[in-house]
Structures are given as structure tokens and as C-alpha cells.
């Protein structure tokens, strides 16, 4: 997937209250040999 296919990044988003996988976008990892640690803070 090319980065130019991202359509939601940087735009105003309506956040659904239910599970909605269609709002997730993905892109190819340019450095698959690297390990990454990602942390999401989601206070309720």
C-alpha cells in the first residue's frame, strides 16, 4: 500500500462509539528489520 492512499490521517474524524475496523488505515513498514515499541494512552 502506498502512503498516498491514506485518507484519514490529519483530517477531522468522527469517532464511532462501537468497534469499527474500517476507520483503521495501514501502511507498509519501510524498516521491517527494526523492532518498535508503541504505547497508546487511552484514558476513559
Walk me through what this model shows.
The termini are far apart. The model has no long low-confidence stretch (mean pLDDT 81). The protein has no helices and no strands. The chain has 44 residues and is low in regular secondary structure.
Structural descriptors:
little secondary structure; 44 residues
Topology (SSEs and partners):
Blueprint (H helix, E strand, L loop, with lengths): L44
What shape does the CA trace take?
extended
The total strand number stands at: 0
Strand content: under 5%
Largest β sheet strand count, sense and barrel closure:
none
How many individual helices?
0
Low-confidence stretches: none
User: Domains counted in the coordinates: how many?
Assistant: 1
- The span between the termini is 33 Å
Classify the helix fraction into a percent range.
under 10%
Organism: Coprobacter fastidiosus
Protein name: NADPH-dependent 7-cyano-7-deazaguanine reductase QueF
Short description:
This is NADPH-dependent 7-cyano-7-deazaguanine reductase QueF. With 44 residues, the protein is largely without helices or strands.
